[in-house]
Amino acid sequence: MLQWGGTLADICVFHKNGWESGGEAVAHWRSAGACALPLPSSEQRWYAVHTRARHEKVVAAQLRGRGVDTYLPLVEEIHRWSDRRKRVQVPLFPGYTFIHALDSAETMATVAQVSSAVGIVGAEIGGTPIPDQEIATVHRLLSNNIPCVNHPFLRLGQRVRIRGGALDGVEGTLLALKGENCLVVSIELIQRSLAVRLEGYDVEIV
């Protein structure tokens, strides 16, 4: 298996900046440190593991303990009350963690051994692979401190590509949100999306 360059906590945690009314943290993240993904492999692919509610960290830790490369992007929310503030780490995609593994009976058996893991997502027997580019895009957005928010998954829309800047070559769906142009990037398999403001970026139709 490929090895990570740090612990689960220090490679996958991102901080939200600011608060909304009522003490809720706003959905803008900045990187808490370097987060290196495994190199693309002709044998190992990315898969989504569906977890029980609020068991994402437990599943990721247990899988890593069994030698499976696991990517669980976390965000650190600052919740504010009248008398105190508290930092809470939560998954970027609730109910899911990602593994970089072989499509094999051994991988399926390892996931099945984790009681809080519902299973590998996909119609195929061993799960449906996630394109490397989709995981890399989410990682790139967070690592470059790009403000983004969870967005309803889109099936239809014009595909565009960013030209120039830190996100040169990143592709997604063009959408107007509250009068601003946004790029929506998606993890197709788990039907989760992120919206990124396009102000200051040039885009072209794919």
Strand ordering within the main sheet: 9-13-12-11-10-14
The CATH C-level name of the largest domain is: Alpha Beta
Order of helices and strands: HEEEHEEEEHEHEEEEEE
Estimated helix fraction: 10-25%
For the record, the count of structural domains works out to 2
What is the overall shape? Answer: globular
The counted number of beta strands is 14
CATH topology of the largest domain: Alpha-Beta Plaits
Low-confidence stretches: 1-34
Number of helices: 4
Given the helix and strand composition, which structural class is it?
Answer: alpha+beta
CATH superfamily of the largest domain: NusG, N-terminal domain
Span between termini: 35 Å
Strand content: 35-45%
Instruction: Please state the CA-atom Rg, rounded to the nearest Å.
Output: 17 Å
CATH architecture of the largest domain: 2-Layer Sandwich
The overall pLDDT, averaged over residues, is 79
The biggest sheet, with number of strands, parallel, antiparallel or mixed sense and barrel status, is: 6 strands, antiparallel
Description:
This protein is α+β, with helices and mostly antiparallel strands and 206 residues long. The protein has two domains: 8-137, Alpha-Beta Plaits (2-Layer Sandwich), CATH 3.30.70; 146-205, no CATH class. It is built from four helices and 14 strands. The chain has helices at residues 8-12, 56-65, 105-112, 132-143, and strands at residues 13-16, 29-31, 44-51, 69-71, 74-80, 85-91, 96-102, 117-120, 148-151, 159-163, 171-177, 180-187, 192-197, 202-205. It has a six-stranded antiparallel β-sheet, covered by helices on one side. Strand 11 and strand 12 form a beta hairpin. It is globular.
